[in-house]
Amino acid sequence: MKKLLIIGTTSMANHLAELGLVACFDRVIHVPNLNKGEIYNVLGNYDCEEKEKEKIANLVQSTPIKNLLFLIDRAMQKSPKLVYENFASEYKDYVFK
After folding, report:
1. Residue ranges of E strands in the chain
2. Is 50 exposed, middle or buried (0-12, 13-18, 19+ CB in 10 A)?
3. Low-confidence ranges of the chain (pLDDT < 70)
4. pTM score, whole prediction
5. Structure confidence at residue 96 (pLDDT)
6. CB contact burial 18-38 (16+ within 10 A = b; e otherwise)
């Protein structure tokens, strides 16, 4: 017997509930937004100067991990090193669409 693991992420759990999709999953785990300190810790996994990490963490303040990783990925497509200017540009495009 083969098993299948499905992991779904959403910031709109209420829509899944309205569609009756929540019942399809065995578990629902709420993952809170990252705070400034946690964002700073995540940034420590990337090639990023300390000053740049502080500026990025101050800019974002609080965000879901999925969004942070998405923005880091987009910013690093512009440069091999994570820099504030690239991150801030992606952040503003993402937040103010």
Report:
1. none
2. exposed
3. 97
4. 0.78
5. 72
6. eeeeeeeeeeeeeeeebebeb
